[in-house]
Amino acid sequence: MTPAEHINIERLWSNLMELAEIGAIKGGGVNRQALTPEEFAARDLCITWAKAYGLSVAADEAGNLFFCLEGSEPKLPAVMTGSHLDTQPTGGKFDGAYGVVAGLEATRAIMHSKMPHKRNIEIVAWMNEEGSRFAPGMMGSEAYVGVKPLAEIKAVKDKLGVSVEEELLKLQDHLPNIRRVPLGREVYCFIEAHIEQGPILESENIPIGAVTGIQGVRRMRVKIMGDEAHAGTTPYHLRKDAIEEASRIIEKLYSVFSKIKDIRFTVGMLNIEPNVPSVVSSEVEFSIDLRHPDSAILMECEGQVRKFVDQTVSKCSSEVRCIAEANTINFNEKVIAVIESEAKKLDIPCRRIFSGAGHDARQMSYFCPSGMIFVPSCKGISHNVSEFTNQKDIFSGAQVLCATLLELANSENEL
Ligand code: GLV
Ligand code: MN
Ligand code: MN
Predict the structure, then answer these.
(1) Which residue ranges in the chain fall short of pLDDT 70?
(2) Cross-strand bridge partners of residue 272
(3) 382 C-alpha vs ligand 2 centroid, how far in Å?
């Protein structure tokens, strides 16, 4: 039996469904935000599986969790796979979870096939990919590769004022006996399996996407500051109404950006003070998630946000901050080619695809040769409780991942 034939779809699917019970919400979705008790429980379940499969377990100080299958030359840099266990507050069963669970199943299959492999194969669950509780996301992978200091990450607080640092300490208490490994250990290559989160693979009936890159993103915060006033008595000329001005800005930005090809502009979060019906609002803060495949256009659009905010505020004052900035990246051509060739050997149709969503593989691409394997998302739906991928595609993705990991774990070539 080939390693890919050792992939057991019943186990893989039931593991995914069992994981989705942790933080399950109405409509079939999952709320398992970073460093919450639910996310700790998801880690526990993965640790139980990994130990049962004979993998070793380790963690680093950024809250990343690792499972390892040792190769015959364990001093060589490892092949790493994995994704994240945290979800959006109204997330689905597959975003992130698939990469971790498929990584475990693929590694187990390699072990059971008894095929030799030189390099260690590691599966990682990165800390806080989604960034909805602690913003911005990708914290674990950013700390691992060193693009952001851990101290800066630890200082981030959620809406209730709880810091990442406090939750990381709780995580340490939760898993006191886990082996500690340093950040930034050398990695030969990183391969993340993930659902597409868009409609292309399904519409073309192709089960595998060999991902060529990830589009650039700006995550911004705009604050409009006015003054509280009585809704019944204050004449308009004396008001500084933060909601009125913020809504004009948002409307203008949607209208301007709707005319730019391939842009994705989203205002997903609004915080209003004091947020009561009979008081003119004193402050509105809103988020902007801005993405485009062309980094130059993205930079221009960021400038336009600043310009339109300046032009539109009149009586209020404003503040615009960019909290995360990333340009479009391309994955390693040799890694993409290995994914394509392993899919071909397995006779599983595969096409190249570009990622609209962000992933930890972006951070890893700054650090080591990286790539991603996509499987179709039903109707392209994601960040939604009804996110779904059918079992056949879940299976194909894990088979291609398994074959790709084994090939790379025996590779001595420079990628
Ligand atoms: C990741 O979840 C993203 O928002 O791209
Ligand atoms: Mn994800
Ligand atoms: Mn996501």
Answers:
(1) none
(2) 284
(3) 9
202: three-class secondary structure by DSSP: helix
What pLDDT was estimated at residue 259? 97
Mutate to test the pocket of ligand 1, among 359, 360, 377 (most ligand atoms within 8 A of CB): 359
- For residue 289, the ligand 1 atom closest to its alpha carbon is 4
86 residue type, one letter: D
Query: What distance in Å separates the CA atoms of residue 285 and residue 246, rounded to the nearest whole number?
Result: 8
Q: Ligand 1 within 6 A of 91 CB? A: no
Task: Report the alpha-carbon distance of residue 80 to residue 124 in Å, rounded.
Answer: 7
Can you read off the two tokens belonging to residue 312? Answer: 């539109």
Number of helices (H), then strands (E), belonging to the chain: the values are 12, 19
Rounded to the nearest angstrom, the distance between the alpha carbon of 130 and the centre of ligand 1 is: 6
d(CA 74, CA 78): 8
CA dist 135 and 213 (Å) reads: 23
* CB 120 within 8 Å of CB 78: yes
Please report how many Cα atoms fall inside a 13 Å half-sphere around the Cα of residue 131, on the Cβ side.
20
Buried b (16+ CB within 10 A) or exposed e, 364-391: bbebbbbbbbbbbbbebbbbbbebbbee
In ligand 1, the atom with minimum distance to the C-alpha of 356 is: 5
Q: Is 357 in the pocket of ligand 1 (CB under 6 A)?
A: yes
Phi and psi, residue 358, nearest 5°: -90, 155
Check if 358 has its Cβ closer than 6 Å to any atom of ligand 1. yes
Residue 58, pLDDT score: 98
Q: What pLDDT does residue 244 have?
A: 98
Per-residue model confidence as pLDDT tens digits over 171-186: 999 999 999 999 999 9
pTM (2 d.p.): 0.97
Q: Residue 237 C-alpha to ligand 2 middle, in angstroms?
A: 47
List pLDDT tens digits, range 250-270: 999 999 999 999 999 999 999
Residue 224 phi/psi, 5-degree rounding, is -115, 125
Substitution candidate for ligand 1 out of 94, 211, 291, 383 with most atoms within 8 A of CB: 383
